[in-house]
Design brief:
Layout: E1 2-7, H1 11-22, E2 27-30, H2 56-69, E3 73-75, E4 81-84, E5 89-92, E6 97-105, E7 109-111, E8 127-128, H3 131-134, E9 142-146, H4 150-160, E10 165-169, H5 179-186, E11 191-194, E12 197-204, E13 208-215, E14 220-224, E15 227-230, E16 234-236, E17 266-268, H6 280-300
Parallel strand pairs: 1-2, 1-6, 2-3, 6-17, 8-15, 9-10, 9-15, 10-11
Antiparallel strand pairs: 4-5, 5-6, 7-16, 12-13, 13-14
Helix pairs in contact: 1-2, 1-6, 4-5
């Protein structure tokens, strides 16, 4: 029996563990893969306060070491289900069941991939899923953005102020994102729209060098570039808890800034929460808030 179980050992979950342990609560962190979450794939973090340059891998290691030094217990088991009892929550994995007074869901979300050969190998070497994280590395260079929603439009707009040339590639001839942003993009002289097209091949040596684009008629063209920003959606890791916790149409957990879900004693923190900004700093902020609220709940039950 623990005071708090945290599902997910990314920045949000590990920060929650630190705050909960500093409040002298017993803490179990369950992680399906490895500590750090998506941030371990980021070669250089520049936008986190105080840490001017730190790799995502180093950041994750320091965070997990801090949580463990404070007494948080971390087990590498995938949480499959949560049962809500009268006085406790039970989290089930494939091999074990664990109980706690409160649970924090910090499972994060996964960037939707294009599904192309070598895509994962080129992350950090020409492929990125976050323009605000990595855009500065492509100042005065040529980049492309793939997608048709608000994230893709906003990424392209952001990159036009940094890159020499920006291509915006969309599989249709109309965007799903806001027309006001599209209108702004039309005013950008260094942006070119590539409609009715899909990225079908990545050409690379040690880094991405060019992409092949196929239009609706099957015509293939090559675009030489330095960076490709993929913005075709995200997949929140919430489905295992959908029978208990309310999800929105995108699969995210609706929660205010207090990180409360619809179920008393279950909280959410990080990229699997419905919110406007998903950055490292907002993930750690969620972790601190969710832990504070979970500590209050555990102390009163």
């Amino acid at each position: 029996m623990y005071d708090i179980i945290i599902i997910g050992a990314g920045p949000a979950g590990l920060t929650a563990a630190i705050y909960a342990r500093r409040a002298a609560k017993t803490v179990l962190v369950l992680e399906a893969a490895s500590c750090g979450g998506q941030i371990i794939n980021t070669p250089d973090i520049e936008n986190y306060p105080v840490a001017m340059h730190i790799s995502g891998f180093e950041f994750a290691n320091k965070l997990s070491e801090q949580a463990k030094a404070l007494g948080a217990e971390i087990k590498f088991e995938k949480a499959l289900e949560i049962c809500d009892g009268d006085s406790e929550k039970t989290v089930k994995t494939r091999k074990n069941s664990y109980s706690a007074k409160a649970v924090i869901l910090a499972t994060g979300s996964e960037n939707r991939r294009l599904g192309l050969e070598n895509e994962d190998k080129l992350v950090g070497r020409g492929i990125s899923y976050c323009a605000t994280c990595d855009g500065a590395f492509y100042k005065n260079k040529t980049v492309a953005v793939v997608g048709g929603g608000n994230t893709a439009l906003e990424d392209a707009l952001y990159l036009t102020d940094l890159a020499e040339k920006v291509y915006l590639i969309h599989r249709r001839d109309e965007f799903r994102g806001e027309e006001a942003t599209v209108a702004q993009l039309r005013q950008k002289e260094n942006l070119s729209f590539v409609y009715n097209s899909r990225v079908t091949k990545l050409n690379a040596g040690k880094r991405l060098e060019s992409i092949e684009v196929t239009d609706k008629d099957g015509n293939v063209s090559t675009i030489e570039l330095n960076g490709l920003f993929v913005a075709v959606g995200r997949i929140p890791e919430n489905q295992n808890f959908a029978q208990l916790v309310t999800l929105d149409e995108g699969g995210y957990i609706p929660a205010g800034e207090d990180c409360h879900t619809n179920v008393p004693g279950i909280f959410v923190a990080g990229d699997n929460r419905a919110k406007a900004v998903r950055q490292l700093v907002t993930a750690t902020a969620d972790g601190a808030v969710a832990a504070t609220e979970a500590v209050k709940y555990a102390s009163s039950h």
